[in-house]
Amino acid sequence: MEQEVRDSTQRVLDVAERLFMDRGYSAITLRDIADELGMKQASLYYHFPGGKEQLFLAMAERMFDRHHQGVVDALAGGEEDLRAQLRGVAEWFASQRPMKFMGMMHADVAALSEEHKEQLAQKAHGAMFRPLREAFVAAEGRGEIRAMHPDLLAGCFLWLMDGLSYGETRTGAPPRAAMAEDVISMMLDGLLPRDGVFVPAMSAMWPVAADAGLVDSGRNGQGRSS
Amino acid sequence: MEQEVRDSTQRVLDVAERLFMDRGYSAITLRDIADELGMKQASLYYHFPGGKEQLFLAMAERMFDRHHQGVVDALAGGEEDLRAQLRGVAEWFASQRPMKFMGMMHADVAALSEEHKEQLAQKAHGAMFRPLREAFVAAEGRGEIRAMHPDLLAGCFLWLMDGLSYGETRTGAPPRAAMAEDVISMMLDGLLPRDGVFVPAMSAMWPVAADAGLVDSGRNGQGRSS
DNA sequence: ATTATCTATAGATCTATAGATAATGC
DNA sequence: ATTATCTATAGATCTATAGATAATGC
């Protein structure tokens, strides 16, 4: 029975995570979640007496714990080599559903109480930002990369990894692994030629759609281009 | 009177843009917007008979038109030099309120009708994505940068510029101009040393907070770091 | 007559609470 | 007795519509 409780609550969190992360805190109702679970909206209060906000918070904390584990493990797996570490983190994020990290930390969090807002920000920071930042600091210490504000580096990388998942659905886009590899190469090698030679990119092999929109439909993007 | 109508409707759009972009389509009610304007919720239907969705759409299109102008002008101002062009675009975005582009194109757009969804995606693409992508293609054609999928390059840059505005409120963060310059340098020069020399970064001058959270409060970020 | 607002309200949700019910464990 | 659900519903919004009102332009 103890086991049952756990499974059931975890299933609620699974659905909540998928829906909240996909459409945002305000857009999702408890009924949406309950419907997907085949239960009634009021039944969710058995698992989360604090209601919607408590459910969202529990979902977010569980998610951050998971990502913390994934990021820390990935960083540990490529020790002494930043590129290998970043590849590992990229693989981790590719294995997870998009979290829309910043979208959540901004729009969704605004709907929470002041206390929970701060709590979640701290959690997110400790879970993903801090370990990644430390990896950049260590790489700089080893003389592997130049000095740049480590918060900026960690933020850019996390941000880009999260961003890759948005583009995933586009038709004609290079596969995610190729994009991640190129993003890492862009950060480390840069786009300018090195020693007069161009570093090859994986995504360069994919054909560029004539005028790739989000889908391939007629263009009505912009008329009044002055 | 004609003039009056225009001003009044534009003021509605101003407030709608600020609120929608800040907290998302679902989180903002027509009452929120009307209150801020000092009018009644029902009065908004005079300006936008189609209601909330029409108001959001009009707001987004006006915003994209503005950004199209800003991006195109910035790109034209630094012709034949990608770094100058990107600096110009970065300055443009710094002069504008954060648009939370992707957050909007994903979560908010999901609440719209299928038709408007597509319409907005096309608009956003034509307004900002396409001109930027073409600048990357041209730079590659000039031999300035290596070949990489231009959609990826344009997406990364836009994404990073949008991301910079999120971090802006953090205490102790380097000023936005320094961050933008470093992000551009990271993309073009890379983090690895060039010809044995480290390219200097502006943000490297800013002190790294001992354990910079979003604010400087006690750490409760992560306990169970296995 | 037109413009730009307002008041009032119908109808549809949404969150949260109270209490019933069925199944399982002691 | 406990667990996990359900039904029913109060109370609070939210969107949208109908129609009144005051100010301005012809």
Would you kindly provide a written description of the structure presented here, covering whatever features stand out?
Two copies of one chain form a homodimer. Chain A is mainly alpha-helical. In chain A, 63% of the residues lie in helices and 0% in strands. Chain A has nine helices and no strands. Chain A has helices spanning 2-23, 30-37, 44-47, 51-77, 82-95, 101-108, 114-141, 150-167, 176-189. In chain A, helix 4 packs parallel to helix 7 (114-141), helix 7 crosses helix 8 (150-167) and helix 8 runs antiparallel to helix 9. Chain A is globular, with a radius of gyration of 21 Å. The termini of chain A are far apart. The model of chain A is unreliable at 1-5 and 212-226 (pLDDT under 50). Chains A and B meet through helix 4, helix 6, helix 7, helix 8 and helix 9 of A and helix 4, helix 6, helix 7, helix 8 and helix 9 of B. Chain A binds a DNA duplex (26 and 26 nucleotides) through residues 1, 4-5, 8, 29-31, 39-43, 45-47, 51-52.
